[in-house]
Amino acid sequence: MLGWFRKKPASPAARSAPPAPPTAGHPLREVLFGDYPLEAWARGGDAPRTGEPWTRFADALARRERGDVTGARNALAEIVRQPGLESRHHVQAWQALRDLGQDPPPAEAKRVYGVVVDMPTPAGLDTLAAYEDRSARFLSHGGGAVVWEHPDASLDGAVDALLAAGRALVGQIGPWAGVRPPLPPGEARISILTPSGLHFGQGPVGVFRGDARAAPVLAAATALMQALITKAVPR
Fold first, then answer.
1. In a shared domain, residues 62 and 142
2. CA quadruple 148, 227, 186, 34: dihedral positive or negative?
3. Domain count of the chain?
4. What are the pLDDT digits (tens) for 149-179?
5. What pTM does this model have?
6. Within a domain: 7
7. How far apart are CA 129 and CA 192, in angstroms?
């Protein structure tokens, strides 16, 4: 059975909890979705970051921790409005804004900042991600990774095709509230990253491939994955 998951009630504590660990997958998979808690993203994990937008995330966190919700929202809104940032920063900022009780305006709610496709294989999980900034990632079940930071325009068409397929799908499903659920073993998932939250569907691979809504996303994802792999092959 293929499920397209809609919004469910969630407590404020659940909304700000760390993402659930994946059932299986590459160690870098968890950073693809733009749903880290503000305290984790602002502090940069084991390697604190400097400069923009990290300073604004840190400012938002400091304001939130001393009870200045308005100030925290304002700092995050500056990130949302800042052009030229990596798409995941915008998704992270909206995640933090929603946790502070501020939802995006309707005109912005369904903007697709990224599409992540998880595909199980007999040996593990492959994950592909594409973003509005035209960066992309392919994480192999074998532990390898191809990271595309948009050094040139050669993959723009493939990235844009996957994002367009995500845009065609996002209007048909609602956002998920709460912590992103772990992916059940053997199932595929399409995740669409928007200011209103994660939109996703999942199910067995065979069912996914036969679903009229999922098929265009999977076709575009396969084309982008193949293009990314060619970039990693020595010439």
1. no
2. positive
3. 2
4. 999 999 999 999 999 999 999 988 889 988 8
5. 0.88
6. no
7. 10
